[in-house]
Design goal:
The protein has 314 residues and is an alpha+beta fold. The protein contains six helices and eleven strands. It has two domains: 122 residues, no CATH class; 149 residues, Jelly Rolls (Sandwich). Helix 3 crosses helix 5. The chain binds flavin-adenine dinucleotide.
Length: 314
């Protein structure tokens, strides 16, 4: 009957660290909307376990609802009194009640990415973690969103070249949504270009622009149940697989001076949601052509951004 057992004794709550902000139950219930420095999100209910654990005869947990998503502020991720100390994961600056929601693994991993990115910003600019909050917050949030992190209530800012492009498609709906800076569904709005294999999405400019890279965000069905992080795998667990709607094979074409289109890049075995491809061309038009998915007849594209040759979004 026993198909899984933890290999380490675990504890949900041990030492408490204090940052410039201590995240509270009230903050979570307000969805963190009042924070200017959101760098990650949570969504798990606040689940407060009784200290007696399974020796408690009645239900072992009190659940306090939490909005999903709610924003988590950067100021909870570094120490209030130790200048060079970050917190990433279960140890962020939060009250007992708030931590009962933020401590889940998927949320901890987002906090890890936020802190890793903040550490890079701090090192590059020779500033402290608090210095990042004081002078580089917008850069931190934008870098996270460029790397396809979701920050609630924030829009990724789209560069000038992309904003100037006119977007059309040979077929499919909502082509123009690929340059709006939102890289996923917005509520019930699917906010993406939905296309069949071989359909073409075109970005065109009035005069040629020098393009270094193209950044693409494909649909990887973030709401599929098997995305949930589980703390154990049962024997009857279905194997994980690449989402059927994800683009597997695609081409990027460029428009020549004569108005003809030529292939610039072909990617054959993509299994990523965020894809950056190098172009290194001066052109007045690029095309994205999805040619194969991992199973579905239609695919969905959330973002197509063109980056000027001198910038490096990676
Ligand atoms: C019993 C239990 C059940 C849970 N169930 C779930 C669940 O179903 N779903 C879910 O999402 N979350 C669950 N959680 C919560 C979640 O697992 C943890 O909060 C999360 O994994 C914490 O991740 P972390 O990286 O912040 O810390 P940890 O996973 O604790 O990692 C810290 C690491 O640092 C290491 N370390 C410590 N000191 C040092 C040192 N001086 N030098 C080097 N390394 C050091 C430790 O060995 C450890 O590997 C559960 C937690 C427990 C205890």
């Amino acid at each position: 009957m026993l198909d899984w057992i933890g290999f380490l004794p675990g504890k949900r709550e041990s030492r408490r660290f204090v940052g410039d902000h201590i995240l509270t139950q009230n903050d979570i219930e307000a969805a963190g909307r009042h924070f200017d420095d959101i760098v990650a999100f949570g969504g798990w209910t606040m689940d407060d376990h009784f200290p007696e654990g399974f020796y408690k005869k009645e239900a072992g947990t009190i659940f306090h609802p939490a909005p999903s998503p709610y924003g988590i502020p950067y100021r909870s991720l570094y120490s209030v009194n130790i200048e060079n100390l970050f917190f990433a994961g279960r140890n962020i600056s939060a009250t007992h009640a708030a931590m009962s929601s933020t401590r889940v693994m998927a949320t901890c991993s987002l906090l890890g990415q936020a802190v890793g990115t903040a550490a890079a910003v701090a090192v590059l600019n020779r500033i402290t973690p608090r210095g990042v909050y004081e002078s580089r917050l917008a850069e931190l949030q934008q870098t996270l969103m460029e790397d396809d992190c979701y920050i609630p209530f924030r829009r990724r800012s789209v560069n000038e070249i992309t904003a100037q492009a006119s977007v059309t498609s040979s077929n499919g709906e909502k082509a123009e949504s690929v340059t709006n800076g939102f890289d996923r569904m917005i509520g019930d709005d699917d906010n993406c270009w939905t296309a069949a294999m071989g359909d073409r999405l075109e970005l065109r400019w009035e005069s040629p622009v020098a393009i270094g890279k193209v950044r693409l965000v494909f649909d990887s069905d973030l709401s599929r149940p098997t995305h949930n992080m589980v703390s154990y795998y049962t024997l009857d667990q279905k194997p994980f697989s690449v989402p059927a709607e994800l683009v597997k094979r695609f081409r990027v074409q460029i428009r020549g001076a004569d108005g003809g289109w030529t292939d610039r890049v072909e990617v054959k075995n993509n299994y990523q949601r965020l894809v950056r491809v190098s172009l290194g061309v001066t052109t007045d038009g690029i095309r994205l052509i999805p040619e194969e998915s991992w199973g579905n007849e239609r695919v969905r594209v959330f973002a197509v951004d063109a980056y000027p040759a001198e910038s490096d979004p990676a």
